[in-house]
Amino acid sequence: MTKRYTKYKSARLVALTLTSAGFALPGVGFADTQSATAGSTQGRLVDNAPWNDVLNTYLVESPDGIYRFDYGGLKADEDARSRLGCYISALAASPISSWTDEEQFAAYANLYNALTVQIVVEHYPVDSIRDIGGGLFSRGPWKEDLITVEGESLSLDDIEHGILRERFDDPRVHYAVNCASLGCPNLQPHAWTAETLDTDLNAAARAYINHPRGVTVRSDGRLKLSSIYRWFREDFGSTERGVIEHLLLYADEDLTAQINARPDIANHVYDWSLNDATQE
């Protein structure tokens, strides 16, 4: 565990680890792992219907391929906000560590995304999520304790970096969580579920990598990439070649040919503007 996220205690991480025999290896996928948890936990899982209802109502697919959220609409809908809050509370009250790897990943990704929407709605209107919270040396709400799960107070950073990245060691986590920004991989139009997790993560990776905010081929043939591939290079093989190999796993035929023609990263960019449906 990196020093940045020691707040997510190592003992807690060990407890999570012991619940499963296998991990999803980078680039392999959850479909290739076996859970040590016997029997189905379906009856104890949280119903994702409230979250799906919010997504179905307020998430909009724009012509440019970016999914934008109607934060103002949700803010005006007291009933929907209440149901979203109840959904978040239900996830937090669940024995997540007793679930299978796939179920845990889906639950924490859903929790992260639902919390992010809730935070933005509470502070809306804002131009960027980075305008919310933060301190003298940081911007944004990511380090603030927001929820307690199985006795641990968690921030968004704890969920993303201390649990999802550290626990599952799968680069596709970066396509699972959404930071409410135009530069981020899309907020998915439905809740993550264990049954379709591997397929949906691969689809999310393909969607981002084959979109200009993920990968753009410059006029000189070099690559302009999302800053995600610089900030978290360690998750993509730690080297420029590792990043290139990751991109090639999901690039379509045309992009693959362009990358192979000149596999050279020129620069990285990221748009922190709010993914606001009213600002298309």
Could you describe the 3D structure shown?
- The protein has 280 residues and is an alpha+beta fold.
- The chain has helices spanning 10-17, 49-58, 71-76, 78-92, 101-123, 156-168, 197-209, 228-231, 240-250, 253-261, and strands at 59-61, 67-69, 134-135, 138-139, 147-149, 152-154, 215-217, 223-226, 265-269.
- It has one domain.
- The strands form 4 sheets. The chain has a 3-stranded mixed beta sheet. A two-stranded antiparallel ribbon has the order 1-2.
- It is globular, with a radius of gyration of 18 Å.
Explain the layout of strands and helices.
Blueprint: H1 10-17, H2 49-58, E1 59-61, E2 67-69, H3 71-76, H4 78-92, H5 101-123, E3 134-135, E4 138-139, E5 147-149, E6 152-154, H6 156-168, H7 197-209, E7 215-217, E8 223-226, H8 228-231, H9 240-250, H10 253-261, E9 265-269
Parallel strand pairs: 8-9
Antiparallel strand pairs: 1-2, 3-4, 5-6, 7-8
Helix pairs in contact: 2-4, 4-5, 5-6
**Total individual domains:** 1
Class of secondary structure makeup: alpha+beta
Number of helices: 10
Strand order of the largest sheet: 7-8-9
Strand content: 5-15%
Let me know the largest β-sheet.
3 strands, mixed
Gross morphology: globular
State the end-to-end CA separation.
39 Å
Give the beta-strand count: 9
Helix fraction?
A: 40-55%
| Mean pLDDT over the full residue set | 88
Order of helices and strands: HHEEHHHEEEEHHEEHHHE
**Rg measurement, Å:** 18 Å
